[in-house]
Amino acid sequence: MRVEIVNQIPSLKDRLLPGISESSQKVSGNLALANFRAALGGKDSFFQLQDFTVGFPGQSAEIQGACAGQFVIVFRRLDLSANRSLYSILSQTLQELLKKTASSDALFATLCVTGPAAEGSPGPELSLVLQLEAIGSTPEQAEVRWGLGLMHLQEAFLSASRLLPRHVAKINA
Fold it and tell me: SS3 of 8, please?
């Protein structure tokens, strides 16, 4: 999996193919996505999934398939949600963990620490925007690869949940 930390990620919603809502709904019902959402939403999770978009980006004339998802993730604890350095540590930790996976070169993860979408918007000041993209010879193959990549992400978040409390303890000391 190729992993990159960037300063800005464009909205995935603007890149999704129009007219394939049935296929996008199928991806939204993907078991790997359901498991990822459940893991982040669990009572023991250090994180919370604030928003997500999933679908097939690209242009309708493309032969090759692609599947992508964009996730907005925040710290569950409000006292941590405005700590930019903790989000940076999370990004770097995830990057290191994901680079160690033996997954395909057809998977791409992009991470970005970002502020609120608009001034005065409710919710935490900061968030981690994570975009996972997979390519394949067909949209179906891309979706399968994307699901496998999402499983790697879930494992990385579980590992990060075990590692980050040490950094939080240092911050609170």
Answer: coil
Question: Rounded to whole angstroms, how far apart are CA atoms 146 and 81?
Answer: 28
More confident residue, 47 or 29: 47
Residue at token pair 């009572």: 43
Per-residue model confidence (pLDDT) at position 157? 94
Question: How many secondary structure helices (H) and strands (E) does the chain include?
Answer: 4, 5
Q: What angle do CA 146, 69, 8 make, to 5 degrees?
A: 125
Residue in the structure block whose two tokens are 């930019």:
84
- 114, pLDDT greater than 80: yes
Structural domains in the chain (count): 1
Contact present, 87 and 128 (Cβ < 8 Å) = yes
Residue with tokens 């990159």: 4
Domain residues for the domain of 75 are: 2-172
Handedness of CA 26, 32, 36, 42 (dihedral sign): positive
- Name the phi and psi angles at 50, rounded to 5: -85, -35
- Per-position b or e across 112-148, b if 16+ CB within 10 A of its CB: bbbeeeeeeeeebebbbbbbbbbbbeebebbbbbbbb
What 3-state DSSP class applies to 31? helix
